[in-house]
Structure formats: C-alpha cells, structure tokens
Amino acid sequence: MSGTLGYRGPTAARVAGITYRQLDYWARTGLVSPSLDHPDRRLYSVRDIVILTVVKRLLDTGVSLIQIRTVVELLKDRSLPDFASITLISDGESVHDVTSPDQMSDLLKDGRGLFGIGLGGVVQDVQQALRHLPGPAGH
C-alpha cells in the first residue's frame, strides 16, 4: 500500500477510547492488528481505527469476546466505504450484520431486546476525532 497514510498507536488508541496497553494486547493476540506495514512502527489505517472503536463499543455493552472476534473477521472482508451501509445488531449473545430493512425486520420478529451500532456513524465519529489529533504518519 505504498503512499497510504497511517496513524501511530497512541493516536489510534485515543480515538478508539482504549488504552495503549489494550491496543498492544489486541495487536499481539491478533484481535485487531495494524494493517499498514512499516519497518519501525505499527501504523493503523482509518479502517483499523473504526474496527478498534467497534470492538470497544461491543465490549462496553457486554458482547462476548468470541462474538467480537466473529465481528472483526466479518469486517476484515469489508472496505471502509462498505461500512456506511452496515448496522451491527446484537442481543448480547450473537451479533448480526444488517444491511437491509428485511434483515432488521426478521431480527425483530421474536421480540428479543436488541441493540445496534451503525457503522456509518462510527466512521464519522472516527474521522471527526482524527481531525483534532496528530496527523497521519507517512507509509
């Protein structure tokens, strides 16, 4: 990805609302790793930071780490522009990626309590936060 700009770990952690220690642990365990290769530092793309933020929000709502790993795998196959059309819906036990009203309707039929995270909003939040923090590092 020559020419791609990335953000250093402290900036990624701050925007995602996690500690640098959490960021480091998640990278070492493969939960969320920086996607930009650089010989002497880890650089996180905007997409990586959005995924970090989603992981944090899911953890805060009590979603299990097993389900979070499933979500991360699902998001790894999607581009940042694709995120705008995805809403993650969870009942606390499972997480679904919803991209249409019909899918949402099917999930609501059984009357379970659900919560959702609109990824388009997360992307906007991350981009807004990055405007106010140290700029990207060259790749």
UniProtKB/TrEMBL annotation:
<dbReference type="Pfam" id="PF13411">
    <property type="entry name" value="MerR_1"/>
</dbReference>
<dbReference type="GO" id="GO:0003677">
    <property type="term" value="F:DNA binding"/>
</dbReference>
<protein>
    <submittedName>
        <fullName>MerR family transcriptional regulator</fullName>
    </submittedName>
</protein>
<dbReference type="InterPro" id="IPR009061">
    <property type="entry name" value="DNA-bd_dom_put_sf"/>
</dbReference>
<dbReference type="GO" id="GO:0003700">
    <property type="term" value="F:DNA-binding transcription factor activity"/>
</dbReference>
<dbReference type="InterPro" id="IPR047057">
    <property type="entry name" value="MerR_fam"/>
</dbReference>
<dbReference type="InterPro" id="IPR000551">
    <property type="entry name" value="MerR-type_HTH_dom"/>
</dbReference>
<keyword id="KW-0238">DNA-binding</keyword>
<feature type="domain" description="HTH merR-type">
    <location>
        <begin position="12"/>
        <end position="74"/>
    </location>
</feature>
